[in-house]
Amino acid sequence: MAKPVLSDRLARWYLQFQQFEIIYVPAKAVKGQILADFLADHPLPAEWELTDELPDEEVFMVELPWSMYFDGAAHRDGAGAGVVFYTPEADILPYSFTLTRRCSNNVAEYQALILGLETAVDMKQLHLRVYGDSKLVVNQLLGVYDVKKPELIPYYKYARQLMGYLGNVTIEHIPRNFNQQADSLARVASMITLPSHRNQISICQNWVIPPMFDEGNDSEEENTYHIFVHEIEKEDWRHLIIDYLNHGKLPEDPKKRVDIRRRAPRFIYYKGTLYRRSFDGVFLRCLGEDEAMQAMEEAHSGICAPEPLHPTVASWPFDAWGLDIVGPLPKSSGGHVFILAATDYFSKWAEAIPLREVKKENVVDFIRLHIIYRYGVPRYIITDNGKPFCNVAMNKLCEKFHFKQYNSSMYYAAANGLAEAFNKTLCNLLKKVVNKSRRDWHLRIGEALWAYRTTFRTPTQATPYALVYGVEAVLPLECQIPSLRIAIQEGLSGEDNVVFALRS
Description:
CATH architecture of the domain at 66-209: 2-Layer Sandwich
Structural class: alpha/beta
Oligomer: single chain
CATH class of the domain at 66-209: Alpha Beta
Number of helices: 17
Largest sheet: 6 strands, mixed
Shape: flat
Strand order of the largest sheet: 5-4-1-2-3-6
CATH topology of the domain at 66-209: Nucleotidyltransferase, domain 5
């Protein structure tokens, strides 16, 4: 009975069974019944652990490798290492390391490689392609060269150990000009040296690495320094203005001096807090970077976090209407220039008529004939502040039928958003149905309204016609190619449907 086309005999039986409200439910497939019976006879023990892993699952998974570029730099004043990771999504992760002990360039290259491999281990990135411009280091790890210098042996063994732990690692030699980013990071790190007259330095976004292996007593005596890593405190923009307001102090930079003098008159300093005078005369509190981040976090994720916006929906169909005037439009052949449109807030049902001129009498007649006499008395009607809507005749109509009239904002008439949205939709529909002269739009309003009422609306997830009448409208296509409900109503058999389709 669920077939689109029923035979004559089935259709008659279907009409007979309709009075009993019998619903035909087809039998489900029993393809898995054997497996269900087997599991019922042999249940799994409760202590068995279920696993989501499938045999040979790794065959179907392709893990794209990361790329790692490393380089080391060593000179008389210091040493540094640079490492750059490239993800399969082309993201870049740069790292810069300062080495505290003087070393040769080959040792710096090995330390850069080891630091990069240790970072990959921390990120659990086991599939890695390593690129370096040190021919000695790369060929030693590939087995082409032998490690003869004793100071390189512990670095070589540790690097091989890390590569064995990662598993899927390949290393390749590249020219120096293809490794510029890692080389730049290594050079910058090597320049951060400790002056002889200071015992600590401030470093931002940089790591200070102690010696990896004890190379024994060096021939030259080395002074031991303690290096502390501090984040550079960012300058608070409020301090410059507060110093100028309280003490008249200005920064040494000429540009900042001019900027402070220009901006200071709009600020006041009251009870230890800086305020800025807005254009409305309201004093707004000035926030620092930490306070601004806290305020943004509270605004977006705290108790004041925004919730999804939903339009105010009426309680039932035709409970509230929005009225608006479209135009002036190009004059039609009938002399019409305006369109008076009304939209129901619940079902998005719309009514519209063409007008030669907008008068209060036309508005009152439209509400009475096209809204009240067709769909009942609404609870309220929303309009703008135009003269056709705000007058004595409208007040009398409201008193007579006991409904209320609300007006949108005087400063922003488009606040009646539903009516404004329908105006745009109606104009777009009219552009598609009018002829080339576009002077017959007053005759095409009915077609445009029909298209609007039978079109699926995103806010309601249904068509306005279905929300009002409970069923979808019968479209011309259903009469041309009969649907199930049309076939049942007309009592057509399968042969009749074929003949009907051929004739049409």
